[in-house]
Amino acid sequence: MTNEKHPVHLLTPLDNVAPSIHLQKHLYIPARDDPSALLTTLRDALARTITEVPMLAGCVGPNATGAQRGSLLVEGPYLRAGDILLVKDLRDMLMLAQVYLLHGGLFLFVAIAHTVVDERGLFNILRVWSTRCRGGQDVPLVEPHWTDRKALMQQQGKALSEDTIANLISPEGEPTSSSKTISGHSVMQSTLPPSSVGPAVFFFSNSSLARLKLAASATIAGQSSPWISTNDALCALFWCSITRARAGESSDNNIITTVSYFNMMIDCRSRLLPPLPADYIGNSVLATKTHATFGYLLSSDPSRLADVASMLRTSLLAVNDTYIKDLIGTIRSAPNISSVTRPAYPSFQRNVACTSWANQAYYELD
């Protein structure tokens, strides 16, 4: 029955034969505002949205009085915005797992504190969980070395100066400054205006990757170039291409001298001597740091791709046993640990970060 409080919305034939699933969008929204204010904004805006589209607050069910069996409709009970918007404060929890039951399956949400576990560690934890879901309860999976942090607690690298700390931890040292010194040269830093961004998938055939690697491995006159991987070549291409796209949208006169940083996240487990176990779940990921001016990255010099790829490879090689132990020594020597806490890597529309979860085959765990 239709009434003003609980109206019924009949669905069309096309609605009735659409897949019986929930469409999903998982959005991460970075924000530093007061959480209560953010939640109030989200909840109030959702309430206004429901006022404009009232059926969003209803429930989908069978049309028991319809002439056609199996047809669906939207009816009450109608929910409030506060019932639809579920809030869970994760800030002080080490791990949270939540399941949303949907038509056609379920959505499993897992969050874990990055201060305790890195991406590879999270994958190993979910690997144990998925194995237990399939049975095999009597087979031990977790070894003591998974959580044994002594190897990193006992490292005794040299403590570096305070001036070096920010340079090691942060991709730019002090990112709020509009000017800085790079390799002895004073440069201006431009924060470019936000542009329209979105996800994209690029496919490179094996033959095109081979040609790209060959181009990026070209010998630089008068220099002995390091071995270049296919990933180095791809990253060099992306860095130059992204920089060119950003420069094309800017009218800033300082754009040519603006410095761009390229940060590549790398797993350091195998870079320590002796190496950490592959199953160690604690944090063992650091970022390389390569910098170049926009003018350098935008150069039409035929050797530019090889130059940039060589710079990226050199930065990767620099993260070795000595570097990691010195970094640990620096952190251990700081009177206030917050002075060396790694911030989020800001883009400022000029920096680029690269990471890969290609080896974290989550959907193969089932």
TrEMBL record:
Q: Where, by residue number, does the polypeptide cross the bilayer?
A: 95-117
- Where does the source fall among the domains of life? Eukaryota
Q: Which residue stretches, if any, does this entry annotate as coiled coil? A: none
Keyword check for Protein transport, yes or no: no
Extract the GO molecular function terms from the UniProt entry. acyltransferase activity, transferring groups other than amino-acyl groups
Is Membrane there in the keyword field? yes
Could you tell me the keywords of this UniProt record?
Answer: Membrane, Transferase, Transmembrane, Transmembrane helix
Recorded hits in Pfam families, A to Z, give: Transferase
List the protein's name. Uncharacterized protein
